[in-house]
Amino acid sequence: MSTIATIEELRESVRNSATAFTNLLVEGVVEAQQVERADEWIKEKGSVFLRQALSAALSLRAERQSREAPCECGGVARFRQHRPYELHTVVPGRDVWLDLPYAVCRDCHKSVMPLLKELRSDAEGFTPALRELALLAVTKEPYEEAAETTLPRFAGVDVSRDKLQSLVREYAPAALATMQEPLQDSLPLPATGALYLGLDGGMVFVEKAWQEIKLAVLFHEDAFVSKGPTDRGVITARHVSGVRGSPEELETLLTPLAHALGDREVVVLGDGARWIWNLVDRLFPNRTEILDWYHVDEHVSHVAQLLFGEGTLEAQRWRASQLEHLAHDEAAHVLTGLRFLLRSRRKKVARDAISALHDYLEANQARIRYATFKARGLRVGSGFIESAINHVVQHRMKRTGMRWRAVGADAVLALRCVLRTTGGWPRMLTRSLSTGTG
Predict the structure, then answer these.
(1) Which residues contact 238 (CB under 8 A, 6 or more apart)?
(2) What is the longest distance spanned by two Cα atoms in the chain?
(3) Is residue 237 part of a domain?
(4) Of 82, 181, 227, 282, whose CB count within 10 A is highest?
């Protein structure tokens, strides 16, 4: 491999490559009988030209660097000779061959290639751009799919499953730190307006057992956009936190967030799980707790089907009547009716369902004052947290046949939370570069 030592040599090298590429264009596109896949063809052939140009430019950059370089031991490494080096990049085809000068430290005898330090390529020659692309692919898709389909088919690069696993472990600390960063950095909030916090859990098979991942999603009311009364809407800015483990572990993760909010009121939406209310009781003294309307509807609908039959008119009418009362803060009326039904039914399955609904509503009476909440302009549905469970957990971590080790599950969970947090991904990448972990 010839060394490029001057700007003119670089220009000549690129001109020659460009001429060769132009000849290929004439033959492969202009004079070809079929051109319906010309874009795919030019991507393949053009990537060769791009890799050659990048090789020439980086080789010249290396030649213009000092022939001495600082060594990690504190000594000075001095130029010894040139070596061929294989750099892995995001250019389709991935690999770029370089002829790099390397230096050797007289004190510890380690070799140093200054250009690689400047590029911030890792020990295997992967550039930051390729590491970040591969990390994004494996955060969104399973390891096999990212390695065998997503990266080679859509990006034209190959990254092994082992390398993808290594990247996940490498960036996990930066992801966790980003998830815990000060709230004013991650999600600046208007000084007024309702803040919503949703909490929920999802099950994942980890270490040969089903374990719960607990998520928390915080957003400001201004970030909620809806197209109409029947549209559940979307959230344009959010902060997502998640942990595999106990409520206390999620509490530790949320404590900095709670401190940042101070005594500001938080509207907490949950499905009724006791751990949710216990957790927010410790963290957010100024809060309004709301039992998610859709979960209440599910419980009521279940009892309606057991009592009157699935899809029957009687079941529809009974369900609608109970929801109408609940929507107007008439929970006492519904509870009285359930106690009457409990006395009049003999089948155990029906009695158990009625009793469960009664206890569910009775335990949450302060959280089902929906007319009062709506009069304050508050939302009463937690679809946003269920959406987060789907996006963070189900879509990546709970596919058919998936089995996780704890370290892998925790790392992917942190990355997924950062990916769903507004602006979290670029902040994580910046953090990893500044700390030298990425």
Answers:
(1) 187, 217, 218, 219, 223, 384, 388, 420, 421, 422
(2) 96
(3) yes
(4) 181
